[in-house]
Amino acid sequence: MMLGEIRTWQPEGAPEGVRMLEIAQQPLRALHIPRTQLPEVTGLADLAGFGVLFLIEPAAAPGHRPRVFIGGTKDLTGQLTDYGERAPLAWETAVAIPIARPRVPRFHKELTKLVQFHCHRRAVQVSNHEVVGHAPACPSLVPAFLDRDLGASRAAIQTLLFALGHPVLGRQLRVVK
Asked: What pTM value is reported for the model?
């Protein structure tokens, strides 16, 4: 198996520092948003709807780990705007991962919670960053097709974060199916 090509570009209408990354033939994308440019990205279509976000604070001093907050939401734009005003840490960069509508749309919320849960658990396990905030609860209702898709989604998110210079979920690129 080969890792797909990683493509990066500036979304139309976005300021200079905002970047979009995707892995060829993967349903997930990542938006890299500097905090200073947050007010200018609220109209981006890619931020409308469900998603998982990573708020990243650089290391306070040499030898310290950077800090990360991992959140899930049904409104990426609204949540990022709220965290721009009141955040659980002094973040400088946000990475937003819009979650595409699953095969059965009524499970969109559960899929988002499940991705957030597994990303949080992996970040704590890897320990490259100090994880801020409480651990999210695992959704109680997880259809088998969502659980199957999760492995590829988690590996793709790890790869996208690593490619952006934030090894929150691990330092090695993973093969994405």
From this structure: 0.88
Give the model confidence (pLDDT) of 72-110 as tens digits. 999 999 999 999 999 889 999 999 999 887 777 777 888
Cα 135 from chain centre: 16
Q: How many domains is the chain built from?
A: 1
Residue 67 included in any domain: yes
> Which residue range forms the structural domain that includes residue 45?
6-163
C-alpha 38 chain-centroid distance? 16
- Per-residue buried b or exposed e for 139-160, using 16+ beta carbons within 10 Å of the residue's own CB: beebeeebeebbebbbbbbbbb
Report which of 18, 153, 138 is spatially closest to residue 98, judged by C-alpha positions.
153
- Does some domain include residue 175? no
User: What's 42's DSSP letter?
Assistant: T
Fill in the amino acid letter for 53.
L
- The DSSP H or E segment spanning 131 is strand 130-132
E-assigned strands of 5-60?
A: 6-9, 19-23, 29-34, 51-57
